[in-house]
Specification:
Number of domains: 1
Shape: globular
Protein name: DNA mimic protein DMP19 C-terminal domain-containing protein
InterPro entries: DMP19_C (IPR025402)
Helix content: 55-70%
Strand content: under 5%
Largest sheet: none
Organism: Bacteroides reticulotermitis JCM 10512
Number of strands: 0
Domain DNA mimic protein DMP19 C-terminal: 44-98
Length: 100
């Protein structure tokens, strides 16, 4: 089980939503050694992968757009998985339409 500290969550929550999400995704990256491979994929649940995918998507799009996201090798992780469906299930209806 992946655990984050309550103190880290409290600090991040006071800083904003992006920082709050980052607490979780930083831990996911730590657990996977920063590598998304066949060996590390089973270390995260589907929900954890979805949150990590959201964070990667957001960061890549904000800095370099879709071209950067694909160039950095995240195209398959985002577009060949049920990312859009999960975003809809989590209530992000409009956002889910971005993922083609």
């Amino acid at each position: 089980m992946i655990e984050v500290t309550d103190s880290a969550l409290q600090v991040a929550a006071s800083e904003g939503m992006d920082e709050f999400i980052q607490v979780f995704t930083d831990k996911y990256k730590e657990v996977t050694g920063g590598e998304l491979t066949a060996a590390t994929m089973p270390l995260l649940t589907g929900e954890q992968h979805s949150l990590l995918a959201y964070q990667i998507f957001r960061d890549e799009i904000m800095v370099g757009g879709f071209c950067q996201l694909i160039q950095n090798g995240y195209g398959g992780y985002i577009f060949d998985n049920p990312f859009a469906k999960v975003m809809r299930l989590w209530g992000a209806e409009d956002f889910s339409k971005i993922d083609l």
